[in-house]
Amino acid sequence: MARVAGVLMPLSSLPGTMGIGDLGKDAYTWLHDLSKTGSSLWQVLPLNPVGYGNSPYQTYSSFAGDEIYICLEDLYESMNLEIEWETIEDDSVDYDEVRKTKTHYLKEAYKHFKEDKNYEEFIIKAHWLDEYADFMALRTQNGNTSWVEWTELIPDPKEANYHKFLQFVFFEQWKKLKTYAEELNIKIVGDLPIYLGHDSAEVYFNRDLFFLGKDGRPTLVAGVPPDYFSEEGQLWGNPIYNWDAIAKTDYKFWVDRLKWNQTMFDVIRLDHFRAFDTYWVVDGEATSAIDGEWRLGPAHDFFDAMYRQIENLDLVVEDLGDLRPEVLQLRDDYELMGMQIIQFALKTKEIERDETMKTNMLVYTGTHDNETLGGWKENMPLKEQVRVAKELAIRGVDDDHIIDQICHYTLRLKADWAILPIQDIMRLSGSTRINSPGTVGSPNWEWKLDTYSQDYTDGLKRLTKWVHETRRCRRDDHKGGQ
C-alpha cells in the first residue's frame, strides 16, 4: 500500500458566510489547497443531521445529510433565484442560529422547486428516504420532541416532501464536491458511528433491532467504562443493538448502512471497532457508565456477512483504548487498517513502540476527541516538552517548533497512512478542540475557521514540505507547493 498523508478537517469547520462550513466555494478552495500539498486524504466527521448536543454521533439518521451543510448560494443559482443574503460571520458555529437562518432560505427555495429526472432518480436510489422524511415530518408535527412522546402519528405529506427536497439538494451538492475531489485524486474518508441516536428514523422504524421497553425507551444503553478520557466512564445513551435479531436478517440493517456510506465516501472509518468484539452495556436508567458489563459482539459473523454482501468495502477501524487481544485478532483476521494516536505515546513515553508499528495502520497526532497539540503544549510542563523535543531530535526531527516536530515525526512513521488535524498543522491553541469526550454541549463541535488566514497558508506550506520529505506525496503530484 502506498504511503499517503491527509488532513482531518470537519466540513463544519471550513470558513463560511452562513456561520458554518458547507458544500459551497470554501469547500472547493479547501480541496484545491489540500491537493497542492501532495496529500491524498480528506477526513470528515459524520455529515448526518445532528441531534442531541449538536453531536454528529447523535443524529436523526444514519443515511441522511444535514441540510445545514447545503450551500444556499449554489442552490439559489441553480434555481435561477435572486435574494439578498443575511450572512452570519463568526469563528464558532451557533447551530441554532445557523439552522434557523438556513431553514428560512431553504423553505423559500422549496416554494419554487419543480421535480425533474434527477430528483426522480434520487427518490428511487435513496431507499431510506421515505422513512426519514416521514420521521422528520412527525418530529415537526409533534413539536420536535422525542418520538416516545408523540401523539400525532400520521405524517403530513407536504412536510415529508419538503424533507425529501432537502435531501435531494444535499446529495446533489455532495456529489459535485466529491467529483471534484476525485478529479484531484483526493480520497474522502468518512466516519460511521457504530451506534445510532435513540431519537432517529432508523430506531423509530426498526424497534425490534434494539433493546427498547414497551414505552420505546432504551432498556440498555451504550457507553464505555472509566478510561483515559473520563474517571467515571462515558454514558453515551445510545440504544443497544439486539444482535440476535439483526443476525437473523443476515445483518441487512448494517449492510444497507455501509452500502449507502460507500456511495458517499471512498473510505469509511468504523467507529468504536472494539464493540464488534465486546461492548459495554449500561442499564437504561443509569446516571453514569461505571456500573455496566461487557457483552460479546457479533465479531467474525458480522464481518463475514459484510464482505460477502458488499464489494470493495474499504474500512479503517478505530481500535483505540484498553483492548483485549481478541479485538486486535479480529482486526487482523480481515486485514483491517487500525489506528494509532501519537499524543498517547508522547504522554506515556512509548515513542519506541510507535516506531515499530505495523505498516497497515493509520497514524494521527490526535483525532477530534483529543486535545489539539497546541492545547497539549499549554497543559504540558516545560520539562516534559523539553523531553519530547529532545527525543524527537535524536530521531532526526529537529523542527524549530515542538508542534511542528510532532507533526513531522508522525508523518515519518512506518504507518502507510498519516492524518493530521488542521489545528495541529496551523499550531492552533486548545480553544480549537473539536470535542471533549464525556461532556455535552458548547463548545463541542463548534470550532470553525473564520477565513483562510495566513496561519492556514503557513501551515499548509509546512505540510507540503513534510509530505514530500516523508515520501507521502500523491503520485500525480511531484512538485506540490502553495
Secondary structure layout plus pairing:
Elements: E1 4-8, H1 25-36, E2 41-43, H2 72-78, H3 95-110, H4 117-125, H5 129-141, H6 157-183, E3 187-192, H7 201-205, E4 220-224, E5 234-239, H8 243-247, H9 252-264, E6 267-270, E7 278-283, E8 292-296, H10 299-309, E9 315-317, H11 325-333, E10 338-341, H12 342-348, H13 351-355, E11 361-364, H14 373-379, H15 382-394, H16 402-412, E12 417-421, H17 422-425, H18 454-469
Parallel strand pairs: 1-2, 1-12, 2-3, 3-6, 6-9, 10-11, 11-12
Antiparallel strand pairs: 4-5, 4-7, 7-8
Helix pairs in contact: 5-6, 15-16, 16-18
Q: Calculate the mean pLDDT score and round it.
A: 94
Terminal CA distance reads 27 Å
Note poorly predicted spans: 478-482
Return Rg in Å. 22 Å
Q: Quaternary state, please?
A: single chain
SSE pattern: EHEHHHHHEHEEHHEEEHEHEHHEHHHEHH
What is the structural class?
Answer: alpha/beta
The fraction of residues assigned to DSSP E strands is 5-15%
Percent of residues in helices comes to 25-40%
Instruction: Give the count of helical stretches.
Output: 18
Number of DSSP E strands? 12
Query: Main sheet, how many strands, which sense, barrel?
Result: 8 strands, parallel
- Spatial strand order of the main sheet: 9-6-3-2-1-12-11-10
Which geometry do the CA atoms define?
A: globular
